[in-house]
Amino acid sequence: MGRAVRVAACALNQWALDFEGNLERIFRSIDIAKSQGARYRLGPELEICGYGCSDHYYESDTVLHSFQVLAKLLESPATQDIICDVGMPVLHRNIRYNCRVIFLNKKILLIRPKIALANAGNYRELRWFTPWTKVRHVEEYFLPRIIQEVTGQETVPFGDAVLATKDTCLGAEICEELWAPNSPHIEMGLDGVEIFTNSSGSHHVLRKAHTRVDLVNSATAKNGGIYILANQKGCDGDRLYYDGCAMISMNGETVAQGSQFSLDDVEVLVATLDLEDVRSYRAEISSRNLAASKVNPYPRVKVNFALSCSDDVAVPTCMPIQWRHHSPEEEISLGPACWLWDYLRRSKQAGFLLPLSGGIDSSATACIVYSMCHQVCLAVKNGNADVLADVRKIVNDDTYVPEDPREFCKRIFTTCYMASENSSQDTCNRAKLLAEQIGSYHINLNIDAAVKAIVGIFSMVTGRTPCFSVYGGSSRENLALQNVQARIRMVLAYLFAQLTLWTRGMPGGLLVLGSANVDESLRGYLTKYDCSSADINPIGGISKTDLKNFIQYCIENFQLTALRRRVVKHIMSAPPTAELEPLVDGQVAQTDEADMGMTYAELSIYGKLRKIAKAGPYSMFCKLISMWKEICTPREVASKVKHFFRMYSINRHKMTTLTPSYHAENYSPDDNRFDLRPFLYNTTWSWQFRCIDKQVNAL
């Protein structure tokens, strides 16, 4: 009687507006699913056009080209005898919807619009789409002629309905709907839907994967059923890395897990599951059955097709597995590395240039590039033809095969230590040894001549020569002289990025990498238009604390020799410093935390309270007097909170020019679309600080 269904969930590395490439990857996923016996194939959200089209969704071209791709899919023999579920924007009665288009054998079965739109953090779906608000309601959708010519259909069902096949019932959710408090799978499950599908465009955040897994498993734990989740993967054109993790769950337990980070453009997860396990699981939940007897039914689209075979008693089914989560250090090693690879190959550049200072941040960035090289070599070793083809384009050699990460790193990664009279020999040595360790092409240069030339122009024009504070200069002079050094490094970084390969007789240019961490950006502890200004920044969403732990991970996982381990440990133990002020007795006197007036650990706390806990100055003070009651008096807490908000608001303007960074933390101050704030503040915060003072006096 047909009970074993075989279904496929896909993770595809789609690219916004790359209709040709997106179509090819969809076809490949369908081929793989069919070759493994799947009868239903689920792809990521908006996979035809790519999720990150942003304001291109306003363009009629985006909808037109999506339908052109859909026509190619419908007319292809590759899509025969398998239910295909694809994502694209659809205009219905002049309203744009984020839709699933489900089809079988050249016939569209249902167009299902998204009900709950993602509109927080990095998501702006309400800007481009309208949610479908007509619950359990279906309308006629008049197909464009390009589709009518293929399907022979004039209209198809459009709305909130489910599919009834010969052997089961399927209902669709789209990404955010799983996270909503009234998820559709609840009512669908009560109405007899046995298979729930979710097409997602969900991005990576450190320590987030378990939340998604728990939501999927809990969706069927109370109500029974099979849950299939497909997700986009890779960088599709902006700051986000979509982290795959396709999965299939049944009755509250994971039965199939896809990879979170990989260089495979197409990953297909296939599982065979017994429908009778769902039915028997539900049979003994009396509260569920009582609620189900009262539920309002969903419109059902009848499908003359089965996901199982008539004689499948002996077909083995998948058993529950334990989900393997990456540690945060593994996530930092893999996520930004995969994002860098996508950016590099899709930008058609020849590699990266990194100003390497010998400190934690730039060293961590270098290690991420090395991790990328390691992932590339591993992918090629495992037979990934796409990666090999991309490598050969990047290095401009049709016969090259990357086998050693250090050798590949030498070809595509240039590091540059830019010394000044204020630089210490320690940081110079650390940068050089780390470069040797990972194999980068390393350059040592001195910027003093350029600094003197710039300051000389100023002195010639004004007749005044600024001095550092240790030589009697004012704070204004001191800061200006630091900024000159920092900004010259940015100019030189771009010069060497454009011409270094030219000097080596190699074609192409290099992408400049920034290495300001999330805490420094929050505090504004950076010079506007210094080396924090780059093409992209793989660590801009990662805290200093996590970066230190990541360096420790590199020691243990990149097979460093004993000598090199000591070098990296020196990087770990060295106090963070900008090295922009004069040395004292040949030693660094300037440190980041002293300059900032706060520690990096404190900055992480401020950042999480400000963004995640939505705390203004007064609320932050109220929370911290409890959190820090063992180490600070209320007056000390008040002083710290005021100092943070003064510095944050004074420097907020710097976020408007922040280098595009890999998004990894939910307290990121990224001004582009994640953390929308003014950049001109009243930095006295007079009302707010007065409330704090009143509370301090009361305490």
Automatic annotation (TrEMBL):
InterPro entries: C-N_Hydrolase, C-N_Hydrolase_sf, Gln-dep_NAD_synthase, NAD/GMP_synthase, NAD_synthase, Rossmann-like_a/b/a_fold
EC annotation from Swiss-Prot or TrEMBL: 6.3.5.1
SUPFAM superfamilies associated with the record: Adenine nucleotide alpha hydrolases-like, Carbon-nitrogen hydrolase
Pathway of action: Cofactor biosynthesis; NAD(+) biosynthesis; NAD(+) from deamido-NAD(+) (L-Gln route): step 1/1
Keywords tagged on the record: ATP-binding, Ligase, NAD, Nucleotide-binding
GO terms, molecular function: ATP binding; glutaminase activity; NAD+ synthase (glutamine-hydrolyzing) activity
Taxonomy, superkingdom: Eukaryota
BP GO terms, sorted: 'de novo' NAD+ biosynthetic process from L-tryptophan
Domain CN hydrolase: 5-275
GO CC annotations, alphabetized: cytosol
CDD domains attached to this UniProt entry: GAT_Gln-NAD-synth (cd07570), NAD_synthase (cd00553)
Family classification: In the C-terminal section; belongs to the NAD synthetase family.
PANTHER family, per the entry: GLUTAMINE-DEPENDENT NAD(+) SYNTHETASE, NH 3 /GLUTAMINE-DEPENDENT NAD + SYNTHETASE
Quaternary structure and partners: Homohexamer.
Protein name as catalogued: Glutamine-dependent NAD(+) synthetase
Annotated organism of origin: Oceanodroma tethys (Wedge-rumped storm-petrel)
Gene that this sequence comes from: Nadsyn1
